[in-house]
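Deliverable D5.2: sample structural annotation.
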Amino acid sequence: MDQIWDEMQCDNKAPDIAKLKSYYQHPVWLLNGLFIENHDVSLKCRAAISDWIVQEKRTKILDFGGGFGTLARMIAEKSANAVIDIYEPFPAQAALKSCQGYSNIAFVNQLESEYQCLVSTDILEHVPDPLSLLAKMISLVEVNGYLIIANHFYPSIKCHLPETFHLRFSFNHLATAMGLKMVDYCHGSHATIYLKTSTQPIDWVKVRQIERQSRRLFILREFNRYYVSAWRIETKKIIANSIKQTQQILNSIHFAN
């Protein structure tokens, strides 16, 4: 995927929307879908999400950026009552074909309905303005409906945009400011479950202010994570070892007497 990114001369520090669209239509994404179909960790993550949705009896579901349809098929197989729409801007023919046998799965181009549950797995780190896209997702969910969101704001591959990485520290805060309530982690996956609590318009002045602050603090937070936190851990280990050694010495003196 990085090789194709470089061949198409994409730049993750100054993303060109036209190039991004071309990149996400490249056949390499078909290979990515096939990889997910056979990757143990990816399958376990989607199985955990589908289990939660079925247990909560959510029946009107949107898989936002649903790719190959793996998650949608898991849900459909576990719940005959579930109706799953997949919004995928660039669906591969193989993805469409893989879902043909499921009467309760549909690929959709228009997003107008209100859903009981929306799932977004590893989408927001790919777009230049993830908060605008998150707002769109929120608008598609009914009040007291759920959003299950898995993010990976890290430089694992080049199409993860660095301008989004600060959100690894502030996403929950921003989600709250946008009308969501964090309910729980989706255990067995890297997703977080949010409840939509309000239909009030988003206060974009406040949200963008938090976003700017998050950007400014990112370097300090990274420094703390890599160095200060590591130093604290090592210091605790040294202190614990010193206490243990001192106790051993005292015990040996006691037994000697």
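Annotation notes: The first strand starts at residue 60 and ends at 64. The chain has a mean pLDDT of 90.
The annotation will be released with the project's public dataset once the embargo ends.
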